[in-house]
Design a protein that fits this description.
- Helix 1 runs parallel beside helix 2, helix 2 packs across helix 3 and helix 3 (71-88) packs antiparallel against helix 5 (96-116).
- This protein has helices at residues 3-17, 47-61, 71-88, 91-94, 96-116, 123-130; strands at residues 21-26, 31-33, 38-42.
- 58% of the residues lie in helices and 10% in strands.
- The protein is globular and about 40 Å long.
- A three-stranded mixed β-sheet has the order 1-3-2.
- It is mainly alpha-helical and 139 residues long.
- It has six helices and three strands, in the order αβββααααα.
- The protein has one domain (3-137).
Length: 139
């Protein structure tokens, strides 16, 4: 089984295990509707898209939504969890360049969420941004 099929299988197992429905497949973005347990996720054609799927599923598994916390806190927790899952699936060993790229994008996204809320970037976000990659796995 090639890696992309393996990643699709992981996503399908998570969806089934956590009773999450796909609304539709997107090109390169996602959305999670936590109370409804529904997601919009991309078709997996690369590592980045796999991680987007994991990210959106993570919102639902962990019950992290904007209804329960600020957007930047919600996305911060979800991105950290996504990177932890990436290590669980050994992407750090097999796809280190792609994982580093996703990590940079994730950090930029969380910072943008802070700015969009007209808030100063919290110290916990700054510490995460400055941390060595091995710390990404810790929640």
């Amino acid at each position: 089984m090639n890696d992309l099929k393996k990643f699709e299988s992981i996503v399908q197992k998570l969806l089934k295990k956590h009773n999450i429905k796909i609304i539709r497949r997107s090109v390169n973005s996602g959305a999670a509707y936590v109370p409804e347990r529904k997601v919009i996720i991309p078709k997996i054609t690369n590592i980045h898209q796999f991680l987007i799927c994991i990210h959106e599923i993570g919102h639902i598994i962990n019950n992290w939504s904007y209804n329960k916390m600020s957007k930047h806190r919600c996305e911060f927790l979800t991105e950290k969890w996504t990177l932890q899952q990436a290590r669980k699936y050994k992407l750090d060993k097999h796809y280190p360049t792609e994982l580093e790229m996703y990590s940079k994008i994730a950090k930029r996204y969380v910072v943008n969420c802070c700015h969009n809320n007209h808030k100063k970037i919290p110290s916990y976000v700054m510490n995460w941004i400055k941390a060595k990659p091995s710390i990404h796995a810790e929640l």
